[in-house]
């Protein structure tokens, strides 16, 4: 039965599928201005000097040396997350799965137990709080009921011969989609500055929790590739150069 096919998830998936990204990429790009082409061995002769150069570039916002690298991520998240994600255009490339060309699978988002449910305060001056057990019960039951009904209608249209691009109109934004997203370190830092909330940030940000979940996973993967650059980003207030 259709109802048995529906899957409810409270987490997102982020995988680093390919990359050409290291701290050395930043050093190559920065030092060509004054020293010309250098070998990798020369770049690593003085680690502290290299660390200091990356920190200087970050601190004084010399951004272009951070663009000479590439990371491609596979992301699975609710459609409403991608609608926010696609607002980031400079330095990003996207390819998302198409509901016109494939049958969309019944995988839907529900808030996990850590997700705060209730917004209190005025726009620009609000906070989120946990919510009551009753509110959480209403949310989960309402979402699951709506998802099952919507996907049942979707399948009913497909089985009647209706085109996928027409039938998909009944599906909600809680449906999971997948995409490849490619960026460089500079564009990723700008994304992280807006889509994560951190006490280290010079400029406060108030991201929706679901896109922050994606951003946190991306940041952890990037930090493993470019640890010096990531440390400089954090030390300088999480401001993109």
From TrEMBL:
Q: Which domain of life is it from?
A: Bacteria
Keywords recorded for this protein, A-Z: FAD, Flavoprotein, Methyltransferase, NADP, Nucleotide biosynthesis, Transferase
Q: What is its EC number?
A: 2.1.1.148
Q: What does the Swiss-Prot or TrEMBL cofactor note state?
A: Binds 4 FAD per tetramer. Each FAD binding site is formed by three monomers.
* Record-linked PROSITE patterns: THYX (PS51331)
**Single Gene Ontology BP term?**
dTTP biosynthetic process
The membrane-spanning stretches of this chain are none
Q: In which pathway does it act?
A: Pyrimidine metabolism; dTTP biosynthesis
> Can you state which reaction this protein catalyses?
dUMP + (6R)-5,10-methylene-5,6,7,8-tetrahydrofolate + NADPH + H(+) = dTMP + (6S)-5,6,7,8-tetrahydrofolate + NADP(+)
The entry's FAD-binding residues are: 64, 87-89, 96, 184-186, 190
Task: Name the enzyme group at the top EC level.
Answer: transferase
Q: Name one GO molecular function term.
A: thymidylate synthase activity
Q: Where does dUMP bind?
A: 84-87, 96-100, 168, 195
Cofactor(s), by name: FAD
Pfam families on file? Thy1
User: So where's the catalytic machinery, residue-wise?
Assistant: 195 (involved in ionization of n3 of dump, leading to its activation)
Output the NCBIfam families linked to this UniProt entry: thyX
Name the family the entry cites. Answer: Belongs to the thymidylate synthase ThyX family.
Write out the function statement from the record.
Catalyzes the reductive methylation of 2'-deoxyuridine-5'-monophosphate (dUMP) to 2'-deoxythymidine-5'-monophosphate (dTMP) while utilizing 5,10-methylenetetrahydrofolate (mTHF) as the methyl donor, and NADPH and FADH(2) as the reductant.
**How does this polypeptide assemble, per the annotation?**
Homotetramer.
User: Would you tell me the protein name for this molecule?
Assistant: Flavin-dependent thymidylate synthase
């Amino acid at each position: 039965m259709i109802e048995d096919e529906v899957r409810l998830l409270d987490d997102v998936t982020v995988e680093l599928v390919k990359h050409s990204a290291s701290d050395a990429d930043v050093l190559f790009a920065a030092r060509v201005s004054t020293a010309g082409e250098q070998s990798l061995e020369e770049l690593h002769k003085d680690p502290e000097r290299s660390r200091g150069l990356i920190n200087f570039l970050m601190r004084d916002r010399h951004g272009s040396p951070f663009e000479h690298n590439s990371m491609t991520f596979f992301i699975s998240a609710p459609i409403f997350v991608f609608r926010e994600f696609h607002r980031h255009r400079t330095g990003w490339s996207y390819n998302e799965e198409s509901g016109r060309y494939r049958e969309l699978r019944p995988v839907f988002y529900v808030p996990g137990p850590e997700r705060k449910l209730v917004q209190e305060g005025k726009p620009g001056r609000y906070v989120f709080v946990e919510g009551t057990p009753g509110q959480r019960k209403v949310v989960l039951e309402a979402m699951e009921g709506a998802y099952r009904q919507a996907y049942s209608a979707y399948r009913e249209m497909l089985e009647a011969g209706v085109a996928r691009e027409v039938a998909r109109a009944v599906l909600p934004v809680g449906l999971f989609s997948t995409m490849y997203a490619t960026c460089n370190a500079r564009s990723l830092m700008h994304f992280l500055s807006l889509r994560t909330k951190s006490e280290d940030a010079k400029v406060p940000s108030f991201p929706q929790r679901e896109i922050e979940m994606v951003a946190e996973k991306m940041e952890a993967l990037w930090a493993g590739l470019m640890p010096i650059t990531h440390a400089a980003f954090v030390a300088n207030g999480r401001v993109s150069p």
